[in-house]
Design goal:
The chain has helices spanning 3-25, 138-143, and strands at 29-41, 49-67, 70-87, 93-112, 116-129, 150-162, 165-174, 187-196. The model has no long low-confidence stretch (mean pLDDT 81). It is built from two helices and eight strands, in the order H-E-E-E-E-E-H-E-E-E. The protein has an eight-stranded antiparallel barrel. It has a single domain (28-196), classed as Porin.
Length: 198
């Protein structure tokens, strides 16, 4: 056996060993916790109502199943959402509501290294409203009194994993209206920070 063949075998063995080590360092199933903030907007089509973004928060857990460079991630989040509305001739008011969000996403790690991944992902979010303390203004309450407690949203974005930490930048937009009284497909920009416990 010549030197070139021996060298090729050593290189091949080293590559296989590095893949095995990497596979052990990144478990197939990962479970963790996460929290973050979001900018929410009702996105109404009412001409006499100006809607603006307002800051909200979320906190919960996540689970990820890895398939090499691809993965599926599910989450269960408690969210405190806000949105700002300003009817013509009146002062701005904040709408506040709590919700449970269940995102399910499919992602791909387009850069995958031992201690760092860069990811792209997309999926859907089931949103269930727990309460609807929407506004002190009677006119707005009348407009959203048929607030739909269930809503399906699209989500997509970019993420980065650094060791056990995970950071996501997301965009969300509703498939259905929040209320039967007027068209309002909510949208949000969010950032979340997670930590995989194992």
């Amino acid at each position: 056996m010549n030197r070139k063949t021996i060298l090729s075998c050593v290189v091949l063995f080293a590559m296989m060993l590095s893949k095995m080590v990497f596979a052990q360092e990144q478990p197939r199933i990962q479970i963790g916790i996460k929290g973050g903030s979001s900018l929410n907007k009702l996105n109404t089509e009412l001409a006499d109502l100006d809607d603006k973004y307002a800051l909200g928060l979320h906190l919960g857990g996540m689970a990820r199943v890895n398939f090499g460079s691809a993965y599926i991630q599910g989450e269960a989040l408690f969210s405190k959402r806000k949105a700002a509305l300003k009817p013509q001739g009146q002062t701005e008011t904040k709408l506040k509501w709590n919700a449970i969000d269940i995102p399910v996403m499919v992602g791909y790690k387009f850069i995958q290294q031992q201690d760092m991944n860069l990811r792209v992902f997309a999926g859907a979010v089931y949103n269930y409203t727990l309460n609807d303390n929407l506004s002190p203004l009677k006119a707005i309450k009348e407009g959203v009194k048929h607030f739909d407690k269930s809503n399906i949203q699209f989500t997509g974005g970019l993420g980065v994993d650094i060791q056990k930490f995970s950071i996501d930048f997301r965009y969300e937009r509703g498939f259905s209206d929040l209320s039967n009284s007027f068209k309002s497909k909510p949208q949000a920009f969010s950032i979340g920070v997670g930590y995989f416990l194992f």
